[in-house]
Amino acid sequence: MSNRRTTVFYGILIAFASVAIGMVLAARLDLAPRSSAGPLNIPATNSAPLTGAIDAGTFRNIAKDKNPSVVSITAYSRRQQPDMSDMFQIPGFQPRQQPNRKPGNGRGEQVAAGGSGFIIDKANGYILTNNHVVEGAEEIEVRLFSTEKQATQPTPLKAKVIGRDVLTDSALIQLTELPKTPLTETIFGDSSQLQPGDWVVAIGSPFSYSNTVTVGVVSAVSRVSPELNPVSGRDLEMIQTDAAINHGNSGGPLFNIRGEVVGINTAIISNSESGGNLGIGFAVPINTVKEILKGLQAGKVARGRIGVQVQKAHIDPADLKDLGLSNTNGAVIAQISPGGPGAKAGMKVGDIVTEFNGKSVIDSNSLVDMVVHTTPGTTVPLKIVRDTKPMSINVTIEELNAEEEQRQGQPSAQPEPDAKPEPKETGFGMTIEPLTPQMARRLQVPGGRGGVVVSDMDPRGAAAQAGMGPGDVILSINGTAVSTADAAVKLLEQVAPGRIARVIIWRGNVEQLLTLRKK
């Protein structure tokens, strides 16, 4: 018994000694603690009204208090430089060759893209940034803010991608090791409170100048433009600001005057390849990103889809009688994906959805919002108006794959129609011709479908303004199928000036609805 007690005593003593020695060694070697894999602690949101005066210390205090929460990000990858137009630049996305670039190990030279981010969970090292900053990254380095004057940049910390979302161009990354000193995290503001003229502050790392502070105002809210959509055909409402944003600001925070994050700086309009600031920058509203944070932390953002595209324009009160509606509520279906949920449910191009799962559809945006927030796999009832007649159908929601939609991109260019018989004028600023069997094969029009081909356009005409183009095949006009040019012209001539023609066309292997208003 005595020997056994002695053995246990020395075993415990050795264990304590090992722990003590390990702690001493860790302290002397400055070993950083590993980042925990704990749950994401979503920052609190302050929705109190923005009040108070601006004084000489307002922006100075924001810079002093919030700089420690903003980080510089370097993402190493082997992706090619993106093909961006001269007028639209996404800061931080263009890979920049670094002096310390690494060999490619037979897979090409590794390049680096610079961006920014901000800490939202100090306990677990979670950081928000743009998807385009870290997409395709093999390695990610994060540099924290430092007040020390030094010749070299702060020692980088390694990070990993937790979740990405193409639709909002947002990404959640996590430090794989935490620094010795505590991190500083941000507080969320309520981006829905922003109005044009409100002061905002952007902090980021433009052109590698870390923690650069710029000040401006909100120029516009809910700004939507095709060039700003990460996924073609899906609107992303942005905050427009004149606070200077340049290459490298991507992923950094946009603060309100209380120092709360109200947006993620994402894009700029520029007239040069260098991406110089012209006073037009865009940020994703933080409320939009907050909604998907749990999905980002889980590694996947689940959204619903019904496989349709809707017309962006609101329903005109002047068209209510023609459409069979009693008010301007509703979303007009402009295109249906073959084999998608809408097609399976029997939806048709030109349908007007007035109710979704028992809720009134105000406009196209409200329908999109309700669909994406519906759990995939759910079957919901829809009320629609088709050819002025009300109907009810059920549609089963599928999961949206935003990255797949992004890869599909814009519809392919239409083939030029063959040399043909004499075209006919329509009164809508376009000429049409018969659809020959050769054209039908080239344009991949489904068998058994008739139509006429648009051969020429007046760029100032009603058809061009509605989005019609040469090579489009007109299948029906105001619900009546057309198979000859004479029949199409007759139907279009029946439209009174100021009224609309609902034209279903074949383009890019799908049916689409265009609404033409006769001048």
Topology:
Blueprint: H1 2-29, E1 45-46, H2 58-66, E2 70-77, E3 88-89, E4 111-121, E5 126-130, H3 131-134, E6 139-143, E7 157-165, E8 170-175, E9 188-189, E10 199-204, E11 212-223, E12 238-241, E13 253-255, E14 261-269, E15 281-285, H4 286-290, H5 293-298, E16 304-305, E17 308-310, H6 320-323, E18 331-336, H7 341-345, E19 352-356, E20 359-360, H8 364-372, E21 379-386, E22 389-396, E23 398-399, H9 402-408, E24 424-425, E25 430-434, H10 437-442, E26 452-457, H11 462-465, E27 473-477, E28 480-481, H12 485-493, E29 500-507, E30 510-517
Parallel strand pairs: 1-9
Antiparallel strand pairs: 2-4, 2-6, 3-14, 4-5, 5-8, 6-7, 7-8, 10-11, 10-13, 11-12, 12-15, 13-14, 14-15, 16-23, 17-18, 18-19, 19-20, 19-21, 21-22, 24-25, 25-26, 26-27, 27-28, 27-29, 29-30
What report would you give on this structure?
This protein is α+β, with helices and mostly antiparallel strands and 519 residues long. It has three domains: 33-48 and 55-300, Beta Barrel (Thrombin, subunit H); 304-408, PDZ domain (Pdz3 Domain, Roll), CATH 2.30.42.10; 424-517, PDZ domain (Pdz3 Domain, Roll), CATH 2.30.42. The chain is 18% helix and 31% strand. It contains twelve helices and 30 strands. The strands form six sheets. Strands 24, 25, 26, 27, 28, 29 and 30 form a seven-stranded antiparallel sheet that branches. A six-stranded antiparallel beta barrel has the order 2-4-5-8-7-6. The chain has a six-stranded antiparallel β-barrel with strand order 10-11-12-15-14-13. It is elongated.
